[in-house]
Amino acid sequence: MRSLRIVTPGFELLGEIAGHTSLTITCRHYGVGEFQLSVPWGAAHAEALAIDCMLVPDGEPHKTLLIEGLVYEEAKAAITVRGCTLDGIAKRRLAVPPPAADGTFGWDRVPAPGTPDIPAETVLKHFARNNLADPPDQGRAVPYMAIAPDLGRGISMRGQARFEQLDALLHDLAEYADMGWTIAPDFAEKRFVFDVVPGRDLAVGNPGATHVILSAKMGNVSEMAHTLDAASLRNTAYVGGNGEDELRLILAVGDGFEGLARRETWVDGGNLEMPEELASAGKRRLTGTDIKNTMHGAALIHGAFQYGRDFDLGDRVTLLSRTGRLDARVIEARELYETGKPDAIQLTFGEAPITLATVVRGMQGEVRR
To answer: What Cα–Cα distance (Å) separates residue 190 from each residue in 13, 16, 186, 240?
Structure first.
């Protein structure tokens, strides 16, 4: 079982945990992951475990974990450590708009209204810079946080925010753009670096690429389960913008579906008044409510095309099952390490499964992305 270095938020090494009994790490392409660790009381350096310390897996600093909670279980003489991947720093911030001269807050919009759309990477890094690395209120800045150079990657889009949870905003923007994001440690420079992760296209449907094929017959994946879920499908949005009551500007987006096939939703656009902004908000909401086409499987450590060697989180691969072929992205990886048991990796491909948090955010009708 891999060892974990204990490092303070100021990049000071406190020790190394090698005697833990179990470790589960869940990494997500579009959003924040989590972990749970079980450590015996007598393990070397267990006393150094503390909230806000980092746990760095040996040889895999990109999977650095952030401690958020500790449970000392006397009956088991063990410590249960819980927390998130380093991306979870974004959970500690709202997307706060820049204050106006009179101290009021409006919206943080990028690009400016009336200007062309910009690359998704630029949009994501705009909100990360304004709320993590270099916010107008420097008291909100996260120490040692930096933004990786903007390479202008991704689709053209726009974003707007007003006091949304930053991690939820980044998740929604990333899912719409089909582009992941990460906060990774740079131990040489002693800093945290926010960057986007486009992922590679290794699917058979991408001509000229190095293809990765996963199937039970090939012996590189097992326990495959294919899910199609249309419960959250919406194809027509009414977007409300500036104004009140019958004078409020309302735009229908995606109109054209009729009868039982028509599934409507409402999007509160706040004080948006440009038709292109209303249309953009509606299209993004509809994109986030497509039919969920998801496949789950257990990655095997033998056979061709192994996880972590030939493909990784965020990569698009080809899956073959009894239901046919699916070219899909690895959107979640759950790694399980337990004493006396073989290591296990559970993968989710396609679109993120519907969760309670997703449903609640949809019911709130807020403009996101």
So the answer is: 12, 18, 6, 46
**337 close to 329: Cβ distance less than 8 angstroms:** no
- Could you report the per-residue pLDDT of 277-328, keeping only the tens digit for each? 788 778 767 766 667 778 889 998 877 899 999 999 999 999 998 878 889 9
66 touches 52 (CB < 8 A): yes
As given in the structure block, the two tokens for residue 55 are: 């746990």
Per DSSP, 130 falls in state: I
Per-residue tokens: 87: 């991306």
Question: With contact defined as beta carbons under 8 Å apart, do 305 and 213 qualify?
Answer: yes
CATH number, domain 93-197: 3.55.50
Interatomic CA distance for residues 119 and 121, integer angstroms? 5
Torsion angle, alpha carbons of 197, 68, 12, 126, to 10: 40
Tokens for 363, please give them.
Answer: 């019911």
Q: What is the pTM of this model?
A: 0.84
Nearest of 180, 174, 185 to residue 196 by alpha carbon: 180
Is the four-CA dihedral 363, 364, 367, 369 of positive or negative sign?
negative
Closest Cα to residue 323, out of 224, 233, 230? 224
In 3-state terms, what secondary structure has residue 99? strand
Q: Are 13 and 61 in contact (CB under 8 A)?
A: no
Domain chopping of the chain, boundaries: 4-86, 93-197, 213-229+291-350, 236-287
